[in-house]
Amino acid sequence: MLKSLKNSFEICCFSPTFRNNEILSIKLIIWICFSSPESYEELFSSLPKIQIPFEYNNQTLIKCTESSIDILIFVISKCSHASIRQSIRRTWGNIKLLKEYFPQIKLKLLFLVDIDSKSEKKIELEYKYHKDLVQINNLPEQYEYVTEREAALYQFIIERCKQIKFLFKTDDDIFINTFLLLSSIKNFEYINNKTIYSLFGFPIEYGLVVRRGIDLIGQRYVITQDEYSCPRYPTFLSGFGYLMSFKTCSLLFNAYQTDLKPFPLSDVYFTGLLPQMINIQRQTIFQNVDFRYQTKCSEEFFTPKNNPLACAASSDHFNGKEADRHKNFMNDYNLYWTKLRKQYDLLKIKDRN
Does the pTM of the predicted model rise above 0.85? Predict the structure, then answer.
């Protein structure tokens, strides 16, 4: 009963505007206190789809052609970040190399990019070389559309890449320890067999709602009283990166489609508010694993004692500056990647002995 009351309180702070129907909203709040995620598949399928479907550039990836994919790493990027994408392909997103280390895992890397008329030809040429770009045609590139951008990623998976088992979503200014992520995939499969609706990441508990930003970066997170009336958020996952099953991805997108006013902060919305409403568990992705939230990556961060999964590749992630179109993370990424490869090779030698 206590859990039900707690859920009801948090839902009163944020209740998606389904069909702008007050009676339905009241019924939904009552339903939420006692229902499992499975119950919501039927509920959301019965509601009209309010959000406009996203359109994709047919000159980039149309659909996934593999028969099955164990894990899809989907990176949200910007048109102008070609150098950053290339840095990722050569280091932590080096699929060819990772398949040598993990031959039993069917792995795929994709980048989601926005529309920019100045970069359109460059994007199409980049796609011809790498075959890993998905471009949205009907979405502005401004930060304020982060929720819609992530929803477009989910839509692509549900419509054109539904053979995945797991999705790992991250951004292009985050360095990911893919050795650690892939070496633990069996653990996620075991948990997922028991709980098919779950999210794995770095939980942020009792996060304060920002009503007034003190600088440019803070203003990006300002939320009005009308948008969310509680002083704190339910537990959500850090936007550095989180993992989910296909079923979870599908359910979150179905909820988004029927929501008249999706919440403007994507990580809070998709890993906090919606999961709290539809009873999707949020779990720590790894025990005794670190991630860097205050400053950019450092060499010290990648020592074995930290056992890191993710960190910000650039201070721009925190100070609100737009990454320069010529910015290249290759020096730093190569340094971190070399350290991680050495660590992982040493672990493999120890395991053999």
Answer: yes
